[in-house]
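User
Class, as today's exercise, I want you to study this protein, comparing sequence with structure tokens, and judge whether sequence predicts the tokens.
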Amino acid sequence: MDLMGMMGKLKETQQKIEDTKKRLDTVLIDEQSSDGLLKVTLTANRTIKSITIDDSLLEDKEQLEDYMILVMNKAIEKATKSNEAELDAVAKMDMPMIPGMDNLFK
């Protein structure tokens, strides 16, 4: 077992994971309420970039709060799936299969 080669590969993979995380900052996920009155954009790293609220929602605080929770959760779920798929792809592509190593990047 070539330990030095494996360590080098590990470093390389960590670098690729960092690069992927940086790139995910530029991947935008849009989500909106079914009627389009509330729109949210966030990065695949789950950083909120913009929120657009239709004026009609400003008259109903409870509805606005419900919309926020619903739309944000959907957007975060989408971003998380995108994030995990990208990082999994990098890890699987580059990792030598060492038992137990796949839990390292979770």
User: Anything to note?
Assistant: The longest helix spans residues 61-94. DSSP finds two helices and three strands in the chain. The chain has a mean pLDDT of 88.
